[in-house]
Design brief:
Layout (H helix, E strand, L loop, with lengths): L5 H58 L3 H26 L1 H11 L6 H24 L1 H7 L4 H13 L1 H19 L4 H24 L3 H25 L18 H30 L4 H38 L3 H28 L12 H9 L1 H24 L2 H26 L4 H25 L2 H15 L24
Helix pairs in contact: 1-2, 1-8, 1-9, 1-11, 1-12, 2-4, 2-6, 2-7, 2-10, 2-11, 3-4, 3-7, 3-11, 4-7, 5-6, 7-9, 8-9, 10-11, 10-15, 10-16, 11-12, 11-13, 11-14, 11-17, 12-14, 12-17, 14-16, 15-16
GO biological process, one term: xenobiotic detoxification by transmembrane export across the plasma membrane
GO molecular function: antiporter activity; transmembrane transporter activity; xenobiotic transmembrane transporter activity
Subcellular location: Membrane
């Protein structure tokens, strides 16, 4: 019988030991990265869910008043407020790129300036958006929505105008805190306000019988409590390095900041408007009241689950921007892999939960048998949407952290508005499939966008992205550019070394 040489056996054992060591190192590295993600994602999830639940609670209370009132508040929240919320969140999202990369580069002195610039821009933006609230009723009629729904929705929209200005101050402060991974106080504020909001809705809508007006009042009060508490936290001395008081520098280099803010807003709005247009398309079907209620409540639930995945969106945005700002491209790439895996697992859990409770979750929104039946029929479409939306926000978070807002906006236009919506219209109206056809088109667009973004993440040169991040910090930090790179940091080289 042949005997293996002793040297060969020792070498084999060494290879096995090396493989074991590599596995242990990778396991430890994955655990540490997952821990960093969850430290940001957990409070971000709670914050996002709490803030979204302010509107969610209002819909739940109003839904028991009647189907007409439910349709009206759903249209306002999904069409008008969805449009405005997307613009404000997008404008504030420029801070995710700039503040996150500044933190990675240890340029804490610029964070307070960035925050003030963003607040100036979002407040001015809110002035331009106010007419959308004032003219909600004629806008909805122009879009061929039901006249009764449009009239009631118009009144409600005017009552909730104060929330628009609350959004303008809320999102910049959120991004300022997230970039520094200091968000637990913000989380506690939002949870406390949500509990107060539930009680306030019960008092104003149910107990005192103020109906839609009561829901609007509760929303206004709750949102401004959130904004005031968060702003007091920022300026009360808890951030000595990043907040040094109000500065005239907030009004300098505004145009460069506006361009990045607009790119962020367009990228995000194209995403959120996609669902808004779906609501409008359903409203153009025959006998739309029940169908609008069913689709609106389904999308409300989907958006609630989206708030959870947006926690991972915030976390990966912070991780990628911090690591690129610090010149560590391999760490940024590894963060992306861990975030996608984690969020996908969470998405699978919610997908299964929706299918398992398809006959029960609609009862949270309505008591009408027709609405319950129609909503239950859409559960499989909702489950598929939830699964895709567990992955997609991660990819968007990477895009924001790396500063790819312009290219992602183009991808959104092609996948959603050139492919998804036209396909939905053909299936819904021409093929006469109705709501199912419209939603199928939406799913196709979402799937295509997800695949394109995943391919982009796979092919990108992360070392170059770290170089662009370094130049972006100098550009937006009001230091002169050394090589003429565009403000978005889309090309050029950096004289500084990048740590891999």
């Amino acid at each position: 019988m042949a005997v293996e040489p002793v040297g060969a056996l020792e070498m084999e054992r060494k290879f096995q030991a090396d493989d074991c060591d590599d596995a242990k190192k990778m396991s430890k590295k994955s655990f540490n990265e997952s821990k960093k993600l969850w430290e940001i994602a957990a409070p971000a999830i709670i914050t996002a869910v709490s803030q979204f639940s302010i509107g969610f609670v209002s819909v739940a209370f109003v839904g028991h008043l009647g189907s007409l009132e439910l349709a009206a508040i759903s249209v306002v929240q999904n069409v008008i407020e969805g449009f405005v919320y997307g613009v404000m969140l997008g404008m504030g999202s420029a801070l995710e790129t700039l503040c996150g990369q500044a933190v990675g580069a240890e340029r804490f002195d610029m964070l307070g300036i960035y925050l003030q610039r963003s607040c100036v821009i979002t407040l001015v933006t809110s002035l331009f958006l106010t007419p959308f609230y004032v003219f909600t009723s004629p806008i909805l009629k122009l879009l061929h929505q039901d006249k009764r729904i449009a009239e009631i929705a118009g009144k409600y929209a005017i009552w909730v105008i104060p929330q628009l200005y609350a959004y303008a101050l809320n999102f910049p402060v959120q991004k300022f805190l997230q970039a520094q991974s200091k968000i637990w106080v913000m989380t506690i504020i939002n949870v406390v306000v949500l509990v107060f909001h539930i009680v306030l809705n019960w008092v104003l809508v149910t107990k005192l019988g103020h109906g839609l007006l009561g829901a609007a009042m509760a929303g206004n009060i709750s949102w401004w409590l959130v904004v005031l508490a968060q702003n007091i936290y920022v300026i009360s001395g808890f951030f000595p390095e990043s907040w040094t008081g109000f500065s005239i520098l907030a009004f300098k280099s505004l145009w460069n900041f506006v361009k990045l803010s607009l790119a962020s807003a367009v990228m995000l709005c194209l995403e959120l408007w996609y669902f808004t247009v779906v609501i409008l398309m359903v409203g153009w079907l025959k006998n739309p009241e029940i169908k609008v209620d069913a689709v609106s409540t389904s999308l409300d639930l989907q958006l609630w689950v989206l708030m959870i995945t947006l926690g991972f969106n915030a976390a990966i945005s912070v991780r990628v921007s911090n690591e690129l700002g610090a010149g560590r491209p391999k760490a940024a790439k590894f963060s992306v892999v861990i975030a996608v895996i984690t969020s996908t697992i969470v998405g699978v859990v919610f997908t299964v939960a929706v299918i398992a409770t398809k006959n029960y979750y609609p009862r949270m929104f309505s008591d009408k048998p027709e609405v319950l039946h129609e909503t239950s029929k859409l559960s499989y479409f909702l489950a598929a949407t939830i699964f895709l939306m567990s992955i997609q926000p991660i990819l968007h978070g990477v895009a924001v952290g790396a500063g790819w807002q312009y290219s992602v906006a183009i991808i959104n236009v092609v996948c959603y508005y050139i492919i998804g919506l036209p396909l939905g219209a053909c299936l819904g109206y021409i093929a006469n499939i109705g709501v199912n056809g419209i939603w199928t088109g939406m799913l196709v667009g979402t799937l295509l966008q997800t695949l394109v973004l995943m391919y982009k993440m796979w092919k990108v040169n992360w070392r170059k992205e770290a170089i662009y991040a370094e130049e972006r910090i100098r550009t937006y930090g009001d230091q002169p550019s050394q090589d003429g790179i565009e403000q978005t940091g889309s090309r050029g080289t950096s004289p500084l070394p990048v740590v891999t």
